[in-house]
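Good morning,

Attaching, inline, the backbone tokens for the sequence recovery test we're adding to the shared suite. The designed sequence is right after.
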């Protein structure tokens, strides 16, 4: 109820100011990070950020301001700043604040762990130290850990506007990660892994250690491979990087601006029949999951690609009005210091039914890609890419040896069109998730 009282405090300051509409949002959290290395704690950080944000409509001008304290003078400045900004803002008929929702907000009972703050900090410190120990104990070739970490956040968000919207929720997130170095015969390779969830008990430190260690050790002795055009399997980590590089093209804002590779293509078959992509704001355990978006619009699952056909884009209220469609519940707030903007929640490519062995079977000569370097350099509008890569050389359906120092090139849209198998190993990496994908042909540059 504390955040709700803060909203009322700001609402009283708006009385008699002559605004046409207003929106007050407030957020607070307690964030903890522990970093360990060499059996010792290297960092222990605790932060408790708080912020209140205000948007006001004056005519067709929208003003925004924020405060990080409830000091009356700071709140007065925030209100005055928003009012001045609204009156100075260029008039735009698409400026609006959402109206009340007809349905109840979805219930996500798993989102918040009320017990997390009661877990002793000693156990959280021990988790970072134990993750380092478990990783190094897995193989004698694992020589040192660059960083082992544990992080958590317990947060609360509340929003109210003059149209009758009132939304609030609490949540928690925990994560752990490790980066380890393997050495043998004069070669050194790194491997990392992570896990996240909503509860302290969700973290399986042993599994994180095993995956990180296996990745580092498996790349020892890696060298280049011959240049060829061949079938390729992108494991779920690399496949998520491909989807992430294309993710901005699903935003309605970019489609309307002509900055999307998918502009004007709704209803077209853009991918393989095997590809279905959703942005799921209610995904259990998803880092972007919540009952509502940053404007108080209920979150939901939005199907973007169904059986290879583009079904639509993602919108917040402003860009939805620009396009003449309702918001899809995709306004996101990075913090109370910035205005909400259109974005993704949990972008997921649906899993298939093929195992790793089935994906590799039938490949006479090819490559299994596990890492892509410089994916941010892919052209967002054309989809063209040329990237460094690492992974494994494959012959007769079996992994032969690790490879590095190779480059892969192509076009993201063409690549997703030629997917001929989809793995059963869906994994979420932050806000984007994908299973492994097999591509019919890929240009690989090696020695």
């Amino acid at each position: 109820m504390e955040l709700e009282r803060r909203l009322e405090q700001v609402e009283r300051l708006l009385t008699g100011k002559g605004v046409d509409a207003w929106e007050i949002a407030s957020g607070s959290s307690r964030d903890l990070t522990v970093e360990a290395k060499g059996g010792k704690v290297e960092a222990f950080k605790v932060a408790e950020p708080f912020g209140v944000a205000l948007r006001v409509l004056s005519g067709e001008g929208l003003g925004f301001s924020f405060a990080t304290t409830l000091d009356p003078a700071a709140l007065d400045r925030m209100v005055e700043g928003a009012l001045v900004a609204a009156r100075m803002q260029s008039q735009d008929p698409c400026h609006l604040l959402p109206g009340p929702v007809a349905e109840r907000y979805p219930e996500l009972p798993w989102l918040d762990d009320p017990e997390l703050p009661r877990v002793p900090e000693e156990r959280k410190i021990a988790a970072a130290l134990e993750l380092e120990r478990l990783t190094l104990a897995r193989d004698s070739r694992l020589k040192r850990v660059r960083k082992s970490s544990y992080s958590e956040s317990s947060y609360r968000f509340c929003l109210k506007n003059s149209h009758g919207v009132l939304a609030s929720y609490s949540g928690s997130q925990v994560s752990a990660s490790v980066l380890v170095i393997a050495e043998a015969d004069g070669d050194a390779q790194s491997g990392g892994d992570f896990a996240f969830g909503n509860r302290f008990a969700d973290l399986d430190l042993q599994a994180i250690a095993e995956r990180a260690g296996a990745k580092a050790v498996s790349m020892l002795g890696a060298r280049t491979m011959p240049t060829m055009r061949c079938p390729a399997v992108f494991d779920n980590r690399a496949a998520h990087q491909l989807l992430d590089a294309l993710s901005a093209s699903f935003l309605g804002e970019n489609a309307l601006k002509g900055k999307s590779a998918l502009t004007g293509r709704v209803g077209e078959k853009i991918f393989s029949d095997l590809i279905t992509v959703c942005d799921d704001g209610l995904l259990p355990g998803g880092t972007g999951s919540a009952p509502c978006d940053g404007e108080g619009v209920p979150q939901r699952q939005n199907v973007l690609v169904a059986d290879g056909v583009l079904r639509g884009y993602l919108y917040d209220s402003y860009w939805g009005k620009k396009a003449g469609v309702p918001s899809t519940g995709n306004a996101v707030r990075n913090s109370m210091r910035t205005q909400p903007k259109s974005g993704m929640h949990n972008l997921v490519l649906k899993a298939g039914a093929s195992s790793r062995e089935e994906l590799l079977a039938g490949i006479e000569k090819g490559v299994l890609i596990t890492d892509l370097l410089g994916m941010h350099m892919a052209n967002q509008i054309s989809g063209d890419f040329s990237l460094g890569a690492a992974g494994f050389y494959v012959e007769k359906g079996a992994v032969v040896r690790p490879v590095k120092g190779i480059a892969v090139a192509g076009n993201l849209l063409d690549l997703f069109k030629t997917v001929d198998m989809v793995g059963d190993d869906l994994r979420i990496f932050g806000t984007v998730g994908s299973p492994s994908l097999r591509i019919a042909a890929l240009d690989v540059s090696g020695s």
